[in-house]
Amino acid sequence: MVELKAVRPAISCYFSGVESGPAAPFRKVGFLKWQMPALSPSLGLSCGNNARLSLVQATEESTVSIANDRASVISGENLRQMATNGKATNIVWHKSSVGKLNRQELLEQKGCVLWITGLSGSGKSALACALCQALYSRGKLTYILDGDNIRHGLNRDLSFKAEDRAENIRRIGEVAKLFADAGIICIASVISPYRRDRDACRELLPEGDFIEVFMDVPLQICEARDPKGLYKLARAGKIKGFTGIDDPYEPPLNCEHGEA
Ligand SMILES: Nc1ncnc2c1ncn2[C@@H]1O[C@H](COP(=O)(O)OS(=O)(=O)O)[C@@H](OP(=O)(O)O)[C@H]1O
Ligand SMILES: Nc1ncnc2c1ncn2[C@@H]1O[C@H](COP(=O)(O)OP(=O)(O)O)[C@@H](O)[C@H]1O
């Protein structure tokens, strides 16, 4: 008798090609490390509740793919697709057998992007933190991409002129897409003043996976809050190109949510 421990998520096992009855649908897929002497067709496995166990062996050279509710082992050859992308040529997309759906199932949540846009001082960071806390308390995994924070690292080379803001948003959009692909609820909290840049980020994701939230707070209120004293500096001409003062902000036309 072999006892399976620490399997995440709970799975059931069976050897491909051994079972004679009708194929069981693959509802749960999980992974475990298991030392066994040899694959034995006579091996019997059960997991209670009438659930069926199916085991697919994965090696370093092969990966497991789930298609049409059936598992199969595919070789590296199937995984390769040549691509040319912008300035990069001869690049190959490496596909993993564990996909977004698997990760979402593991996390028991849907990966998506909540994109919070608005003026400085409109409450983007406060809302992002509140959302993160509320979801955390419900057992949901989130990650905040805050404009200020990202400019300390990944985007430290970018200024606040229009083309740098566009590049800032493009990179944050791509990172947000990766987080969503990881199954995480990604909360982007960035001024993102240009509609075109926000729309480009929306285009990166499947329909419904990009939720745009507009902090619909008038400039006067943001300026009165001025928690960092930046509006004061901008009014004094000590910061040039400050959003809402001498730089544009384009409010969303068709966002999913407006917060005032
Ligand atoms: N010129 C200018 N305009 C607007 N904001 C400025 C500027 N200079 C510095 N800051 C600080 O940078 C934060 C905004 O960064 P973002 O990456 O979100 O901006 S953008 O989306 O690229 O427009 C912003 O943070 P928030 O106040 O949280 O919005 C400011 O603290
Ligand atoms: N809903 C709200 N009502 C009143 N004040 C708020 C609200 N949300 C945020 N604030 C305050 O407004 C200021 C700016 O909030 P913040 O989240 O830092 O904005 P942003 O990230 O858009 O710059 C902070 O002092 C914060 O406490």
From TrEMBL:
Any Pfam family matching the protein: APS_kinase
Keyword Transferase in annotation: yes
InterPro entries: APS (IPR002891), APS_kinase_dom (IPR059117), P-loop_NTPase (IPR027417)
Domain of life the protein comes from: Eukaryota
GO molecular function: adenylylsulfate kinase activity; ATP binding
Reaction(s) catalysed (UniProt annotation): adenosine 5'-phosphosulfate + ATP = 3'-phosphoadenylyl sulfate + ADP + H(+)
Its EC number(s): 2.7.1.25
Keywords: ATP-binding, Kinase, Nucleotide-binding, Transferase
Pathway stated in the Swiss-Prot or TrEMBL entry: Sulfur metabolism; hydrogen sulfide biosynthesis; sulfite from sulfate: step 2/3
APS kinase domain segment(s): 110-256
CDD domains linked to this entry: APSK (cd02027)
Listed GO biological process terms: hydrogen sulfide biosynthetic process; sulfate assimilation
Role this protein plays: Catalyzes the synthesis of activated sulfate.
Protein family (similarity comment): Belongs to the APS kinase family.
Protein name: Adenylyl-sulfate kinase
Origin species: Durio zibethinus (Durian)
